[in-house]
Amino acid sequence: MVLVVEDDDAQRDYVVKALSGEYKIITAVNGGEGLDMATSQCPDIVITDINMPIMNGYELCRRLRGNMET
User: Fold this and answer.
1) Rounded CA gap, 34 and 59, in Å?
2) Would you say 51 and 11 are in contact if contact means Cβ atoms under 8 Å apart?
3) What is the pLDDT along the chain (70 residues), one digit of tens a residue?
């Protein structure tokens, strides 16, 4: 399962379309939602944007690394 965290609809749709033939995709529109999804869904990989509202991609990665559940 791949979690795509991207606030831009067009970019998110592009990545989802590119990967959906091979992988199950879940999406989030900001870092806060991405953190919640990663914690609840336990994806195998996270693809994230850097500049997003609520929480940027760097902070999302820092929190994911610091959480043993993810």
Assistant:
1) 11
2) no
3) 999 999 999 999 999 999 999 999 999 999 999 999 999 999 999 999 999 999 999 999 999 999 877 7
Helices (H), the chain: 9-19, 31-41, 57-65
Contact (CB, 8 A) for 53 and 7 = yes
Mean pLDDT of the chain: 96
Identify the pLDDT of residue 31.
96
Domain boundaries, the chain: 2-65
Per the CB < 8 A criterion, the answer to whether 24 and 47 are in contact is: no
CATH superfamily for 2-65 is: Response regulator (3.40.50.2300)
Say whether pTM exceeds 0.85: yes
Cβ(44)–Cβ(21) below 8 Å = no
